[in-house]
Write a structure and sequence with these properties.
11 helices, 43% helix, 8-stranded mixed sheet, alpha/beta
Length: 266
């Protein structure tokens, strides 16, 4: 389905129980809503599941220029408005978790709970050249040139060796990502620095990270956990950034009970 949301055309899918509480799912950089196929299947018996292709990704519109997290959070709220969802549980991974932090700060009345997965609240200033290089590479050489570097960050070494179907699945979504959408998000991510603001989040929050994640390591998750009062932290062993695909069964055991604890009962 598509709708005009916050000034752009957004692609989204709604499934599960129409009469149930809503869960909003937000995917990571250079992927699309299909990254949530496994989790959606687990959630559908209990929830109304809403997943979107983020601005600049999948089949959503990809405007040129740098994006800002205030706008990216407003995209989520705009889709909720379109679907007449007053309040939802939110789960976001990587850039999706960054959006979740902004939702907790800017739109807390619209969110029952936050599940922040494989994410960070600040990007080190000294990593600016790295992000500039990714922007340059996507612009001049295309998304396929970013695949190998992404795989090294996204999957644990064992998964890289033994899960060719998963590697192929992730390669395909990276290559399908519009370069200008990727670039727009890179600008937003490279300027992320909200750790000191997170004490303002008063929502039930669970932070989940893979023990082997080099992209958003456990220390980044710990920083978020420390700042958000009452939050809890789950470190999943043996997995990296895309832990929801490396070990979906274990991931679901950490997500479903948390979602059931807060907000209206499923």
């Amino acid at each position: 389905m598509k709708a005009k949301i916050n000034g752009i055309e957004v692609n989204f899918e709604v499934s599960g129980r129409a009469d149930a509480p809503a869960v909003m799912l937000h995917h990571p950089l250079a992927t699309d809503l299909s990254t949530w196929d496994e989790l959606t299947t687990a959630l559908e018996p209990l929830y109304r599941v809403v997943r979107m292709d983020a601005r600049g990704h999948g089949r959503s519109e990809a405007p040129e220029g740098a994006y800002a997290f205030e706008t990216l959070a407003a995209d989520v709220v705009g889709l909720m408005d379109h679907l007449e969802i007053g309040k939802a549980r939110f789960l976001g991974l990587s850039m999706g978790g960054m959006v979740g932090q902004y939702l907790g700060l800017l739109h807390p009345k619209r969110i029952h709970s936050l599940c922040l997965v494989s994410t960070s609240s600040a990007v080190p200033a000294d990593s600016a050249p790295l992000w500039e290089e990714r922007i340059r590479t996507a612009t001049t050489s295309g998304m396929s040139s970013l695949v190998d570097g992404a795989m090294a960050r996204w999957l644990a070494p064992e998964a890289l060796r033994s899960r060719p179907a998963l590697v192929a699945r992730l390669r395909a979504v990276i290559e399908a990502t519009p370069p200008r959408g990727y670039v727009g998000w890179c600008h937003a991510i490279s300027g992320l620095a909200i750790t000191q603001r997170l004490a303002g989040i008063r929502l039930p929050t669970r932070v989940i990270v893979g023990a082997l994640d080099p992209a958003t390591p456990p220390q980044a998750a710990e920083a978020i956990h420390r700042e958000i009062a009452g939050s809890d932290l789950v470190v999943m062993p043996g997995v990296s950034h895309m832990l929801h695909l490396e070990d979906p069964d274990a991931f679901h055991t950490h997500v479903l009970p948390f979602l059931a604890r807060f907000g209206p009962a499923p």
